[in-house]
Write a structure and sequence with these properties.
Blueprint lengths: L4 H31 L5 H36 L8 H30 L5 H27 L5
Helix pairs in contact: 1-2, 1-4, 2-3, 3-4
Amino acid sequence: MPHSILWSLVLALHLISIIYWVGGGIYAVVVLRPSLGLLDATQRNSVHLQTMARFFKGLTHAIPTTLVTGWLLIVHEGGFANVPWTTNLMQLAGILMALLFARLYFGTYQKARRAIRPQASVFDSIRTQILAIVALGMLAVLSACLGHPFA
């Protein structure tokens, strides 16, 4: 197929969205969470909740953008029946990531947000759920790499 700037932009938007999603998750569990241990419980909870609110707000845009641009790229490449198994694996990982985020956002995060004094166990649960999302994101990236033919 001839090169088109439009499809390059769709791919760029797809990559930027997935970088925000997976990279933000890695930052949250590897950098932010351990650093919050330096604060007292009230400050730690406040910073944690404010950070999640901002990150999750961005994800409400990044997740649909990732999924829609991915599907557009599949259609551009000839449709769902013509993509390699690695693309289907990537698609499955993305859908599972979105479902896990919805579960996290509407469940555990809302519980933490509404609590007067959220318990550490709630934040541990959020961390575990974000780690699962990050693991699926890594699987999606690996799948994308496996599906790319290098000559």
